[in-house]
Amino acid sequence: MSGLNIGQAAARSGLPPKTIRYYEEIGLLPAPARSEAGYRRYGERDLATLAFIQRARSLGFSVEDCRGLLALWQDRGRASAEVKSLALARIEDIEAKIAELRAMRDTLADLAERCHGDERPDCPILSDLARAGEGKGGRD
């Protein structure tokens, strides 16, 4: 039987074997053909599917999003509006994450600015972290 074993498929796809097995387990990747000895054998279509999933995941799509995108990719009668809708929703998620990261950066920069960074024991950074741990939040 021809095809690649899981190690070869992993090398070609850039995904660890464990990830490939996981994608099979959750039904994201169809179960591959098996050799007479029971080893998984991957074909070019499997590799294309793995590349598709890897690229979608690298763009931040969830596993469930990938499931939907795969279904759309395989459906030649799809409407591109569905694909665009998924991409626009992902862009909104990314924009929200960017705003969250900027707020984190600004807060940390403010705390670092207020910290003397010398031999004194008082530190606004640690004080803020301790207050947050007490459920109070806030700043010095």
From TrEMBL:
<feature type="coiled-coil region">
    <location>
        <begin position="84"/>
        <end position="114"/>
    </location>
</feature>
<keyword id="KW-0804">Transcription</keyword>
<keyword id="KW-0805">Transcription regulation</keyword>
<dbReference type="GO" id="GO:0003700">
    <property type="term" value="F:DNA-binding transcription factor activity"/>
</dbReference>
<dbReference type="Pfam" id="PF00376">
    <property type="entry name" value="MerR"/>
</dbReference>
<feature type="domain" description="HTH merR-type">
    <location>
        <begin position="3"/>
        <end position="72"/>
    </location>
</feature>
<dbReference type="InterPro" id="IPR047057">
    <property type="entry name" value="MerR_fam"/>
</dbReference>
<dbReference type="Pfam" id="PF09278">
    <property type="entry name" value="MerR-DNA-bind"/>
</dbReference>
<dbReference type="GO" id="GO:0003677">
    <property type="term" value="F:DNA binding"/>
</dbReference>
<dbReference type="InterPro" id="IPR000551">
    <property type="entry name" value="MerR-type_HTH_dom"/>
</dbReference>
<dbReference type="InterPro" id="IPR009061">
    <property type="entry name" value="DNA-bd_dom_put_sf"/>
</dbReference>
<keyword id="KW-0238">DNA-binding</keyword>
<keyword id="KW-0175">Coiled coil</keyword>
<dbReference type="GO" id="GO:0005737">
    <property type="term" value="C:cytoplasm"/>
</dbReference>
<dbReference type="GO" id="GO:0045893">
    <property type="term" value="P:positive regulation of DNA-templated transcription"/>
</dbReference>
<keyword id="KW-0963">Cytoplasm</keyword>
<dbReference type="InterPro" id="IPR011789">
    <property type="entry name" value="CueR"/>
</dbReference>
<dbReference type="InterPro" id="IPR015358">
    <property type="entry name" value="Tscrpt_reg_MerR_DNA-bd"/>
</dbReference>
<protein>
    <submittedName>
        <fullName>Cu(I)-responsive transcriptional regulator</fullName>
    </submittedName>
</protein>
<dbReference type="GO" id="GO:0005507">
    <property type="term" value="F:copper ion binding"/>
</dbReference>
